[in-house]
Predict the structure.
Amino acid sequence: MKVCIFGAGAIGGFLGVMLERAGCEVSMVARGAHLETMRRDGVRLLMENAEHHARPHCTGDPAELGPQDYVIICLKAHSIPAVVDRMVPLLGNDTSVVTAVNGIPYWYFHRHGGEREGATLESVDPGGRQWEILRPERAIGCVVNPATEVVGPGVIKHVYGDKFPLGEPSGERTERIVRLATAMEAAGLKAPIRDKIRDEIWLKLWGNLCFNPISALTGATLDKIAHDPDTRALAKAMMLEAKSIGDRLGVHFRVDVERRIDGAGAVVGHKTSMLQDLERGRPMEIDALVTVVQELGALVGVPTPTIDTVLALIRQRGEVAGLYQKQKVPDSAVLCPA
């Protein structure tokens, strides 16, 4: 089974090493010193007091790899539009595209049903280019639950977690998703197949929506945000607005707001990815985590005053730091028809 990890950073590197150890033919697309080290020395994975070593084909040029069975996108969501053309050589007639990214994926309204069927969201897929080039019918949803980090060029550290829920946009249990789940399970990962993968996507987004921008604005870790009465109330207000949107889209939230916040608060001392990006001078993942919820709110007619306020603040914080550029969404519509 040929698997290309497009974006072999922390999560991508972890997945690539695990899948290669299970016998998959793995290639990784990366860049910079990380790529050069992996080319020369292979990839080192530090996990559970042990070190695992793999030597997948690592490259900065996807064109040299050819069509794949699976392309697993492990980029920050805001990075995808700029590189989508580079994925074309990886796409054969039967290639599946696995979106292991945060936030709402490009294919969200594929096989969704109802009046929004076949629509794209400008905040995550400007101009619908991912929909056009990657194609929604190729897509398999994937929610990333583990935490990993790149601790040096070519070196990935696994922090916790091994669960990657998978799901077809249609909810079907297809041959291709069973094959992928089987390979991931053989690699020592948990890959449950969900018939409602959008519920899983929203459950993770629900926390990312509020904890990420609040942490980047305040510098606070998850436990401090959850236990301080004022920031907890702010997070709860954002989450309740998001739940109203999700309810109108047919999403089922299997935990309540208080339990979701408590779960985040139990992770002591953890800095969110958005805070880490701000501190390290990396582009901030604002649109896929926050702007898209505002856009969906406008789509279904749910006011989002708290989300709007926090979004305005975090956008300006990102712009002042030179780590975010606001996208221009057409006034005439929140959707781009495919």
Remarks:
- The chain has a mean pLDDT of 94.
- The longest strand covers residues 91-99.
- Residues 165 and 192 are 5 Å apart (CA to CA).
- The two ends are 31 Å apart (CA to CA).
